[in-house]
Amino acid sequence: MGTIVWLGSEVMFFAGLFAIYFTLRSTSPGLWEFETAKLDVPFALTNTIMLVLSSVTCQFGVFAAERMQSRRTGRLFQVGQWGMVEWFFLTYAMGSAFICLQVFEYAHLISEHVTLSSNAYGSAFYMTTGFHGAHVIGGLIAFLLTIGRAFAVKNFGHKEATTAIVVSYYWHFVDVVWIGLFMVVYVLK
C-alpha cells in the first residue's frame, strides 16, 4: 500500500514537470520549433522501445518470483527456465543501456548548444528527461538490491517475491512516465 501511495506522489511530481514544460512551450513557440528540430526522433524511439521491452522482461521476472523461482533451473540460454534473477539482470541491462543512450543524446544536444542554461527549451528538456533518468537509476539500484536479496536468503519466499512485485510497480511507473515524455518531447513538436 505504501508503494502505491508513494507512486501517487511521484505522479504529482511528474505532473508538475509536464506543467512546466507545457507552460514554457506555450510562451516560446518559435524557440520550441527551432530547438526540437535538433532532436533525433528515431534514436529516441529506439531507446523508448528498449525501455518498454524492459518492462516486459521485468514482468517475466515477477512471474518467476510468484512461482518462487529465484534462479534458473536449466542452462543459461534456456530462457523458458529462467528465474527472477535472470529476468531482472536482463531488465537491469536494458535499463542501463537506456541511461547510456540518454547520456549519448545529451552529449549530442550539448554539441548543438542545447544546454540546461541555454534557454527555456534546454531547461525544460533537461529537467523533465533528467529527473526521469534519475528515477531510472533508482530503479536500477532497486533491481540490484532485489537480486542481492535473492542470493542472500536460504529460501526464496513470499517476502522476496513481494519485493520483486513492488520493484516492478516502480519500474512500470517509470516506463509509463517515459512514454508520456516521449510523446510530449519528441512527437508533439
UniProtKB/TrEMBL annotation:
GO terms for cellular component: plasma membrane. It is a multi-pass membrane protein. Keywords: Cell membrane, Membrane, Translocase, Transmembrane, Transmembrane helix. It holds the Pfam family COX3. The keyword DNA repair does not apply. InterPro entries: Cyt_c/ubiquinol_Oxase_su3, Cyt_c_oxidase-like_su3, Cyt_c_oxidase_su3-like_sf, Cyt_c_oxidase_su3_a-hlx. Coiled coil: none annotated. GO terms for biological process: aerobic electron transport chain. GO terms for molecular function: cytochrome-c oxidase activity. This is cytochrome-c oxidase. It comes from Frigoribacterium faeni.
